[in-house]
Amino acid sequence: MRVTLAPLRLTDFPLVAAINVRADQILFSGSVREVFENPAPDVDVDVLAINSDDAPVGLFRIDTGYTAAYGFALQGDLGLRTVMIDAARQGKGIGTSAMRALPAFLHETYP
Prior knowledge:
Aminopeptidase
């Protein structure tokens, strides 16, 4: 299994529309439709795909806006938002592999 991260445009919704998380996870991640229809302020417009063997199986966003409300973020810090892995693909190491790939991806994408 090869896990990669890649940007998506808001017009790429059909590529990830079938990704679903468990009902108890929606409170934390939202749904794919919500991510595409309700972009949050200070969150990159592009959604980032989590691909397994070149097929999108999850997604996330990066928060580039500093807010003191978090109490732990410093100005210039990046935040991880709306992380989701399709329920049928959870428990297979995809999320772990994605998080391992994240530092290098962020370094390249957000120098």
